[in-house]
Specification:
Elements: H1 14-20, H2 28-43, H3 46-50, H4 52-55, H5 59-62, H6 70-79, E1 84-89, E2 92-93, E3 97-98, E4 101-105, E5 109-114, H7 123-133, E6 139-144, H8 155-160, H9 169-186, E7 190-193, H10 204-213, E8 222-223, E9 226-227
Parallel strand pairs: 5-6, 5-7
Antiparallel strand pairs: 1-4, 2-3, 8-9
Length: 228
């Protein structure tokens, strides 16, 4: 949950401003450089961007020194591999200074929990599919509780999913499954839960999943005011 704002200038040649005497049409050499940069950013050509002074047209003319472009690389690197870029502003001042702005949204780790018993006819499954289609860059982990239900809590598994599981092979399977489920939850940036209502309540398979998610001291804790 960290927002990195990097402020610079897409092109920056102040001496050229005085030569062109202020406002006017964008200079062709500015447009050529900005277009090349835009294509490289949108295509994720990181190596080309790092070597822009050698590869981009009119690189030195647009950036006699590169300190005004370097903040762009800080923001690109902070977003990480696979982040989705978008240009959110484009303008030119004085025919020379391109003031383009970009954002890169880091690729989200999405945990999808499906609990509907009606398969493709399920409304909640269709909503999940629509969400995933609108976020094609996301890294998705799916758990289908209809196809692979989490065991309901019983006398054997209850001890295995507690704060400290007792020793014994009879508890090992429940503990291992809970570790796996909790790992999926903690590793997710976004959790999408398909929750149909059957007989005025959630599916029992989903309730069983929540039972395995809940581990005192790990996913919640007891306080003087109650659990949190």
């Amino acid at each position: 949950n960290i927002l990195v704002l990097a402020s610079g200038s897409f092109t920056h040649n102040l001496r050229a401003i005085s030569r062109h005497l202020g406002d006017g049409p964008t200079q062709p050499w500015v447009t050529a450089f900005a277009d090349w940069m835009h294509e490289a950013i949108m295509a994720g050509r990181t190596c080309d961007l790092v070597s822009y002074r050698r590869l981009a047209p009119f690189a030195v003319e647009n950036h006699p020194t590169d300190e005004h472009l370097l903040p762009l690389f800080v923001a690109l690197g902070a977003a990480g591999e696979g982040a989705k870029p978008a240009r959110i502003h484009q303008s030119t001042d004085l025919g020379i200074l391109r003031m383009d702005a970009y954002r890169r949204i880091p690729m989200a780790n999405v945990l999808v929990i499906r609990s509907a018993a009606t398969g493709e006819a399920s409304v909640s499954n269709k909503l999940i599919d629509a969400y995933l289609a609108s976020n094609p860059e996301a890294k998705v982990v799916e758990r289908d509780l209809d196809a692979n239900p989490v065991p309901h809590v019983d006398s054997a598994s209850l001890a295995g999913i507690g704060r400290q599981a007792p020793e014994g092979e009879q508890f090992a399977a429940a503990r291992a499954l809970q570790d796996e489920i909790i790992g999926e939850v903690l590793g997710a940036d976004v959790i999408v839960i398909g929750l149909p209502v059957y007989n005025f309540g959630m599916p029992s398979t989903l309730k069983a999943w929540f039972d395995y998610v809940a581990r005192a001291g790990t996913t919640f804790q007891y306080t003087a005011e109650g659990p949190e």
